[in-house]
Amino acid sequence: MNEPEEHRREGFGGNGRFETRAIHAGQSPDEVTGALMPPIYATSTYLQDGPGEDRGYEYSRTGNPTRTALEGNLAALEGGEFGRAFASGMASINTVMNLLSAGDHVVAGDDVYGGTHRLFEQVYEQYDLSFSFVDTTDAEAVREAFRPETELLWIETPTNPLMRINDIAALSKIAHEHDVLCAVDNTFATPYLQRPLEFGADVVSHSLTKYLGGHSDVIGGALVTDDPELDERFGFYQNSVGATPDPFACFLVLRGTKTLPLRMERHCENARTVAARLEAHPDVAQVYYPGLKSHSDHDLAAEQMDDFGGIMSFELDATLEETADVVSSTELFALAESLGGVESLIEQPATMTHASIPPEQRREAGLTDGLVRISVGTEHVEDLWADLESAIDTAVDG
């Protein structure tokens, strides 16, 4: 039986398996020209048929067809009903914070991205919000941190940069027992490896800059939820604050999501090899990668994730200065902040991504001076290992 083309296209793209949704969900060929790729609607405003009679769009801060396509695609990949795109990952996190009011309390992981920690403590504490940073791998510690005024539980998994694994189902249950929202930053895992809504989370946050964009050429963020009331509030803040991505950025992320499954397979394959070799290196004290059986959360990661990702950290038997020499000595691994592109990156959290966290808090959370974080790209793994091994041997052993 031949179905109408549009029905087949939308049903297959929206309800197919992940690889199919990555390519088709949220978008369809242009009705006028037949162009397969969604047009970049480079317009700030839209013609109205009469006062207050628009055709679905009135102003591009409020909505843009290219952004709509991206938001539908991201929601489908996370298995959610609603998606909202933002100008950066921090803009998406800030939008979640906009849900709160003066006097509210947030429980957050003590091993979160430095920019998230900075936003919470240095921006929102001045507006009479309070924060408790706890070990979110310890469910009882999370439970004990809740107060009557707690309104949000914010977690990352895997965490940044120590790659701890949080039990999303258990933490979501605790949050809901206290009538608290549970938000999960899923940037490291991507929806290809982990979908927090399936485990009970209320909101999923992404930095689209990372794996979803995948080519280190765009900045963006996103929120996905199944809750229509939450989505309506996100839309209100998205429009009111105006931290929205431009249509070209949306187009670039849509291009990136099409190859996400292919790229993640190689990221994971390369990372497994590099992690195993680092673990055997005499100058490496510890490797933080959930794909290793030696990782304390390996079993949970295996249950919760479809694979273990392309990010890892490792601790050197080295001083801050020696560690800086290591990250400055690689050639293929670029010394740079960020992650998730096809090219490999290396950084020193203590002086780069997590430098905004006070040294005492940093060390208490396990972020030592010898810690190195790498984003393993899609280059040939033997070239990557030769580069990394040479940098460690030269800088540490002289």
Question: Could you give a short description of this structure?
Answer:
With 398 residues, the protein is of the alpha/beta class. The protein contains 15 helices and twelve strands.
Your description of this structure?
The longest helix has 20 residues, at 260-279. Strand 2 (105-109), helix 5 (114-124) and strand 3 form a beta-alpha-beta unit. A seven-stranded mixed β-sheet has the order 1-7-6-5-4-2-3, sandwiched between helices. A five-stranded mixed β-sheet has the order 8-9-12-11-10, covered by helices on one side. The chain is an alpha/beta fold and 398 residues long. It has helices at residues 5-15, 18-24, 65-78, 89-97, 114-124, 139-145, 168-177, 190-193, 228-241, 247-258, 260-279, 298-304, 320-329, 359-364, 381-397; strands at 82-86, 105-109, 130-134, 150-156, 181-185, 203-207, 221-225, 284-288, 311-316, 334-335, 345-347, 371-375. It has two domains: 5-258, 3-Layer(aba) Sandwich (Aspartate Aminotransferase, domain 2); 260-397, Aspartate Aminotransferase, domain 1. Helix 3 (65-78) packs parallel to helix 10.
From the structure above, extract its key features.
Aspartate Aminotransferase, domain 1, Aspartate Aminotransferase, domain 2, five-stranded mixed sheet, alpha/beta, 398 residues, 2 domains, seven-stranded mixed sheet
Provide the β-strand percentage band. Answer: 5-15%
What is the CATH C-level name of the largest domain?
Alpha Beta
Largest sheet composition: 7 strands, mixed
CATH topology of the largest domain: Aspartate Aminotransferase, domain 2
Quick check: average pLDDT?
A: 93
Give the neighbour order of strands across the main sheet: 1-7-6-5-4-2-3
